């Protein structure tokens, strides 16, 4: 994979819908994994309570301790809450959409920035139109990729300010409604929570949450998750990658990204079972084992840039008849690049 100054364009449809149909044809029992997990709400409440308690504990500590606590503890809880928002965006907790959105707003509280409902809008489009520049907010802006490209310093700044770049991208996605009653409610609840933290816990507690937020999605090994998911880090012919490593334990299996894109209606706790149920489809894909190693490789490897993404102009859905058959001879052969 050589250094490039342009995105990789594909005339092929995104790979997930066709694979979903094939898996269901070969493994109809997978349908039993589809459903809701209402017990996830207790995970959300526990995480929110835990990081709020940490904010209270550091409220009178030295600033260096506040930053360290945010990097080594708060970031992991904050990231886990992003995963919970992701579950709510796919309506994987409750049957009622409104209940899922309320759960998402609760998950959003320690993030300081109101983003839960907006995330739902943009993320669902990412699933429906993966790689379509006008609709996929997961893709960098063209000016963003040109500015950062493969510079180590640029990539450090990009990860550090990743939430800022994500917000700027929304101006590109003009077909998505930017505000509605739910988004306004998200903003009001978030502001009230932030003000309460500042008044009752103090500014250090507030900044602990803010630092935790930026670390959880940026200049931190957890930030490699965004690189792992769709950047062409292992093969230009594979645009989605999973991560099978120890951090899935604290990240609620968010690393199972191919599995999630194939079956976004399967909750986080059943994604490993999906992988085990269809080995011919997942064991033959390249994947990552370490976010930490990928984090440093992304920063220093000149062959990985913000251009290392697949774009497509075809907005149409994949016809259900347009499917390919995986090589069954590869069952059980784990294709993996060690040390990444």
Model description:
It is a single chain. This protein is mainly alpha-helical and 340 residues long. The chain folds into 2 domains: 1-33 and 220-340, no CATH class; 36-137 and 173-217, no CATH class. The chain contains 15 helices and 4 strands. It has helices at 16-26, 40-57, 63-89, 97-108, 116-128, 142-148, 152-160, 162-169, 181-200, 203-217, 224-230, 257-262, 271-277, 279-282, 291-300; strands spanning 8-9, 242-243, 287-288, 310-311. A two-stranded parallel sheet has the order 1-4. A two-stranded parallel ribbon has the order 2-3. Helix 2 packs antiparallel against helix 3 and helix 3 packs across helix 10. The longest helix has 27 residues, at 63-89. The radius of gyration is 20 Å and the shape is globular. The chain starts with 7 loop residues before the first strand and ends in a 29-residue tail after the last strand. Residues 317-340 have low confidence and may be disordered.
List keywords for this structure.
globular, 2 domains, two-stranded parallel ribbon, 51% helix, mainly alpha
Q: Please state how the strands of the largest beta sheet are arranged side by side.
A: 1-4
Average pLDDT reading: 91
Helical stretch count? 15
- Note the main sheet: 2 strands, parallel
**What's the alpha carbon Rg, rounded to whole Å?**
20 Å
| Low-pLDDT runs | 317-340
The percentage of residues in β strands lies in: under 5%
Number of domains: 2
Q: What would you call the shape? A: globular
Q: Which structural class do you get from the secondary structure elements? A: mainly alpha
């Amino acid at each position: 994979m050589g250094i490039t100054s342009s995105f990789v364009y594909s005339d092929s449809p995104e790979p997930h819908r066709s694979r979903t149909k094939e898996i269901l044809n070969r493994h109809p029992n997978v349908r039993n994994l589809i459903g809701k997990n209402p017990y996830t709400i207790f995970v959300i409440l526990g995480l929110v309570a835990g990081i709020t308690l940490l904010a209270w504990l550091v409220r009178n500590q030295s600033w260096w301790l506040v930053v360290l606590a945010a990097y080594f503890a708060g970031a992991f809880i904050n990231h886990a809450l992003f995963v919970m928002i992701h579950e709510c965006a796919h309506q994987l907790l409750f049957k009622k959409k409104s209940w899922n959105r309320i759960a998402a707003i609760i998950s959003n509280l320690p993030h300081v920035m109101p983003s839960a409902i907006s995330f739902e809008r943009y993320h669902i489009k990412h699933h429906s139109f993966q790689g379509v520049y006008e609709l996929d907010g997961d893709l960098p802006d063209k000016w963003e990729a040109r500015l950062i490209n493969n510079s180590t310093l640029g990539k450090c700044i990009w990860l550090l300010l990743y939430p800022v770049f994500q917000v700027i991208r929304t101006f590109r996605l003009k077909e998505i409604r930017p505000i509605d009653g739910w988004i306004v409610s998200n903003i009001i609840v978030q502001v009230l929570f932030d003000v309460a933290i500042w008044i009752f816990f103090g500014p250090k507690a507030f900044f602990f949450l803010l630092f935790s937020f930026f670390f959880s999605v940026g200049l931190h090994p957890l930030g490699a998750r965004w690189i792992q998911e769709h950047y062409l880090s292992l093969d230009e012919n594979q645009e989605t990658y999973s991560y099978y490593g120890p951090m899935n334990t604290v990240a609620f299996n968010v690393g199972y990204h191919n599995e999630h894109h194939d079956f976004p209606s399967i909750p986080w706790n059943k994604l490993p079972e999906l992988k085990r149920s269809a080995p011919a489809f997942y064991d033959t894909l390249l994947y990552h084992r370490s976010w930490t190693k990928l984090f440093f490789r992304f920063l220093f490897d000149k062959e990985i840039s913000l251009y290392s993404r697949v774009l497509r102009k075809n907005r149409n859905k994949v016809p259900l008849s347009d499917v390919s058959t995986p090589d069954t001879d590869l069952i059980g052969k784990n294709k993996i690049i060690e040390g990444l």
